[in-house]
């Protein structure tokens, strides 16, 4: 019997016999979407999806066991390890392998494996799990299985969201006072918060709930979108108005806390709130010396749940010290591997001012006539102490040229040092994109706190997939966290980043997938070396590729076709008066010291690289794209002769192309990088993998005409003419002409020979014509 027969004949009836209902049995359910692999500049492929044979639920979205079926001639144990792998992924406690005639169980609670005659009942499994969870009474047990929000068709939670929600609810029920959930940006922390709040609220476990954040758009986004089903039970606290008649409260720390005394939170009794959700809790609320910590301490009787995207680090250790170990962690790497988050490529561009530094000697003055302290200034100093305006201009030019090559309407965030730097960058980008600014006046916009509601309006439009513009936004701190912009294609790093916590938050702005808008991966353009943080041993999500480019002084990319120098730009405005300081975005700390403004600096690219994980998926190594492609081709075809042989067969040629595609390599990309778009695909592969001469398709076709006279002379003149025309088609368009022969024969010049049957008859029949074309391919690639 096949596996499907085993399921239908034995396993499903056995589950029914054990008391499992149809609504508790999920068969062949897909739990992941399959990892996205970028291919070329715009295309992608998907990896395999995980699909357990059966998931057993105690109630909807509360799985407890996995069953993996195997053919009846196999042993029950043959499916057990696969079931265990699925169980670990799903966070369930019981795994079963079965061939229909026997059942083997692995109990994760005890580590014991047992051979069984029948499946346990739902009540038996729940009794075992309930004891492990230490649920004190029947009310606790019932509330642990409380219903999710689904009254009017709520969004279905993904498997990892179910784990996070269930574990948080269980932690609350069992009396844990401080709870932490760590989930990568873009994986639905706010949705998780809503679902667990809904369950606790409906079960009357928590009656008054406070949702805390440090930015308005975090609060408004949660209140107006995710939490909308709570309706009139919600209120946002602001100003000095005290509201005590609602059940769900939203607030900024800044609205509750007044450093001058008389804070709004002090107007409420200490035991007023039962539950507090702290969004983006790594941003300082848990620090011992934080003024916002006073709010959490004041409401210390409430259960407090922290949400963060960053695993434990030195610079966020206070968060973990306050909330404790997370009840669940879903990392960036897991999200990418499951296909729920977008992978990313890295392009590293090194300005020479950053590579070599800017040397200031005694007596050097800036553009305002102020004497600059002598010394060697580097990346960390730029736009903090020393503003190199030509550096900004060159980077803006390079970014503009990059977008011209890849997509000028691809939404892009440029992270600058401060608000003034963001203004400089916006000005330069607007100047270089005047043609689009004429059509779309907000093609480039600055989104910083100083812009007030104008900046907020630009941000709203930038986040909206239905809005074409703004396309490029420049910012400093405002967009580093919490902004949901699913259509972002490019993240530009134009400031030094020392904290991996901040780095991961910034990267998270691009990790959301948007299939409806053809966004499956994104690119990080790094002008400051910030992506060196990828090599931190604790970083949990590696880039797909890294490409290091070279630019000249004006921002032209030297590794691509040269472009004309831009027309002379007008003198940029003075963005700050001498001695001015930048106030910074909200919560960023002390204001920046004054800067010195100079001209000078150039940009260039030094190498081209890709990142690749080792066979174990652990160690990150850097290799050139050509070396990477060479390794992949040699894995598929160990010798040049073998590659020529299999390439001459249409089916095997398609398999090679598909295998390279899955590895992120396209023949078009190889041809572009080699600068030989007219080369035959197999010649590109032979050249890359085995250093063979790189022929054009026409050169290969002419070589066959010269050496293949015996082949052509075996056919009548009319048949030879058809083969000769087919060879010309190959020279113009490639080997795809052989693969789609039926279609090719319908167009000129072949249509002049008659229909497909008449053409085939010139060879003596269809089989003879097919054999002739196949033989011509073999000779072509010898």
TrEMBL record:
Residues 548-591 are annotated as: Disordered. CDD domains: DEXHc_RE_I_III_res, SF2_C_EcoAI-like. SMART domains: DEXDc. GO terms for cellular component: cytosol. The keyword Magnesium does not apply. Its EC number is 3.1.21.3. This is Type I restriction enzyme EcoAI R protein. The lineage of its organism: Bacteria, Bacillati, Chloroflexota, Ardenticatenia, Candidatus Promineifilales.
């Amino acid at each position: 019997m096949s596996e499907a027969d085993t399921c239908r004949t034995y396993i499903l009836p056995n589950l029914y016999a054990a008391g499992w209902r149809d609504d508790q049995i999920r068969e062949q359910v897909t739990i992941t979407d399959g990892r996205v692999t970028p291919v070329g500049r715009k295309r992608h492929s998907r990896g395999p999806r995980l699909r357990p044979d059966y998931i057993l639920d105690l109630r909807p979205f509360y799985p407890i066991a996995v069953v993996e079926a195997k053919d009846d001639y196999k042993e029950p144990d043959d499916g057990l390890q696969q079931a265990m792998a699925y169980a670990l992924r799903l966070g369930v406690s019981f795994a079963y392998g079965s061939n229909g005639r026997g059942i083997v169980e692995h109990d994760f609670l005890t580590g014991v494996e047992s051979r069984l005659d029948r499946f346990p009942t739902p009540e038996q499994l729940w009794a075992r799990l309930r004891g492990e969870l230490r649920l004190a009474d029947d009310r606790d047990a019932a509330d642990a299985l409380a219903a999710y929000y689904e009254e009017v068709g709520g969004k279905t939670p993904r498997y990892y969201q179910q784990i996070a929600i269930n574990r948080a609810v269980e932690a609350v029920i069992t009396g844990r006072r401080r709870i932490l959930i760590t989930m990568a940006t873009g994986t639905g922390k706010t949705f998780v918060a809503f679902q667990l709040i809904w369950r606790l609220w409906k079960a009357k476990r928590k009656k008054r709930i406070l949702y805390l954040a440090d930015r308005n758009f975090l609060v408004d986004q949660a209140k107006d979108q995710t939490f909308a089903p709570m309706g009139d039970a919600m209120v946002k606290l602001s100003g000095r108005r005290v509201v005590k008649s609602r059940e769900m409260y939203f607030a900024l720390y800044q609205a509750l806390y007044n450093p001058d005394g008389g804070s709004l939170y002090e107007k409420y009794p200490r035991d007023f709130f039962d539950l507090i959700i702290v969004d983006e809790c790594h941003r300082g609320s848990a620090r011992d010396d934080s003024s916002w910590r006073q709010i959490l301490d004041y409401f210390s009787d409430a259960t407090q749940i922290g949400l963060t995207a960053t695993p434990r680090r030195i610079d966020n250790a206070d968060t973990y010290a306050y909330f404790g170990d997370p009840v669940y962690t879903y990392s960036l790497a897991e999200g990418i591997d499951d296909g729920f988050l977008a992978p990313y490529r890295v392009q590293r561009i090194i300005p020479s001012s950053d590579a070599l530094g800017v040397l200031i000697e005694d007596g050097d003055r800036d553009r305002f006539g102020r004497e600059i302290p002598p010394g060697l200034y580097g990346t960390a100093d730029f736009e903090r102490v020393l503003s190199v305006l030509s550096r900004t201009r060159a980077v803006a030019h390079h970014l503009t040229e990059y977008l011209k090559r890849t997509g000028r309407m691809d939404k892009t965030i440029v992270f600058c040092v401060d608000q003034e730097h963001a203004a400089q960058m916006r000005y330069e980008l607007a100047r270089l994109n005047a043609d689009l600014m004429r059509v779309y006046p907000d093609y480039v916009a600055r989104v910083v706190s100083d812009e007030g509601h104008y900046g907020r309006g630009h941000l709203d439009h930038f986040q909206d997939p239905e809005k074409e513009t703004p396309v490029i936004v420049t910012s400093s701190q405002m967009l580093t966290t919490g902004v949901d912009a699913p259509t972002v294609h490019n993240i530009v790093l134009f400031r030094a980043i020392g904290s991996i916590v901040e780095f991961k938050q910034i990267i998270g702005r691009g990790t959301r997938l948007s299939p409806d808008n053809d966004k499956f991966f994104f690119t990080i353009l790094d002008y400051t070396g910030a992506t060196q943080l990828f090599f931190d041993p604790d970083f949990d999500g590696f880039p797909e590729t890294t490409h290091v480019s070279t630019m000249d002084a004006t921002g032209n990319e030297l590794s691509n076709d040269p472009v004309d120098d831009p027309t002379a730009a007008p003198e940029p405005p003075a963005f700050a008066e001498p001695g001015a300081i930048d106030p910074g975005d909200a919560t960023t700390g002390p204001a920046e010291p004054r800067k010195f403004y100079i001209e000078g600096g150039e940009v260039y690219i030094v190498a081209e690289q890709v990142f690749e994980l080792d066979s174990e998926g652990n160690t990150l190594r850097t290799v050139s794209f050509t070396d990477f492609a060479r390794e992949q081709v040699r894995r598929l075809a160990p010798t040049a002769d073998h590659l020529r042989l299999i390439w001459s067969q249409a089916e095997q040629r398609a398999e090679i192309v598909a295998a390279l595609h899955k590895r992120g390599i396209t023949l078009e990309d190889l041809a572009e990088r080699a600068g030989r778009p007219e080369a035959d695909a197999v010649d590109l592969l032979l050249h890359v993998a085995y250093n063979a001469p790189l022929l054009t398709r026409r050169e290969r076709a002419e070589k066959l005409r010269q050496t293949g006279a015996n082949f052509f002379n075996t056919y009548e003149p009319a048949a030879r003419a058809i083969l000769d025309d087919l060879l010309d088609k190959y020279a113009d368009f490639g080997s795809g002409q052989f693969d789609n022969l039926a279609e090719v024969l319908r167009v000129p010049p072949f249509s002049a020979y008659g229909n497909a049957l008449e053409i085939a008859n010139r060879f003596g029949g269809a089989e003879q014509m097919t054999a002739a074309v196949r033989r011509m391919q073999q000779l072509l690639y010898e």
